[in-house]
Design goal:
The protein has about 140 residues and is an alpha+beta fold. The chain is built from three helices and eight strands, in the order βαβββαββαββ.
């Protein structure tokens, strides 16, 4: 079982490197990528400046693994990678990176949507929205 968590934001260099590593896999015809980015939401007159992510890592990694296995069972995909941030991630930075590869584009699109929705619905990762005035509230997934 893989640890999907990365400390802090997921860097553009890490994302680019992940994509580049797949050039040698010549049975792949399509990649689909989801990048979750922290928004500067305005809530009751306050602006989000960052989100601090926490998780029950062992339980969350198990859920990520179950989602991975379910996705491979349901779709004809070649590979899939999931990375999620822990700790503070600033506005504009990437907190979730999901990368799905398949021989065909439609399958990649459908599998990626399935994975992202499953993550949002079932993985115990918690986000504390940190406002610019140093107050906070716990994020509710929608």
């Amino acid at each position: 079982m893989k640890n999907v968590f990365r400390k802090g934001a997921i860097s553009p260099d890490f994302i680019a490197s992940s994509i580049q590593k797949h050039q040698s896999k010549t049975q792949i015809g399509a990649h689909d990528i989801f990048l979750g980015q922290v928004r500067a939401d305005k809530i009751e007159g306050k602006t989000v400046g960052a989100i601090e992510y926490t998780a029950y890592e062992e339980m969350a990694n198990l859920k990520f693994h179950e989602i991975r296995e379910k996705t491979f069972d349901k779709f004809d995909i070649t590979c899939m990678h999931i990375y999620h941030s822990l700790g503070k991630v600033g506005v504009g930075e990437i907190c979730l990176f999901v990368f799905v590869s398949s021989p065909h584009r439609r399958t990649a699109f459908e599998a990626l949507e399935f994975v992202v929705e499953e993550i949002k619905a079932h993985v115990p990762v918690f986000g504390k929205e940190l406002f610019e005035d140093d107050s906070y509230q716990w994020k509710v997934n929608t």
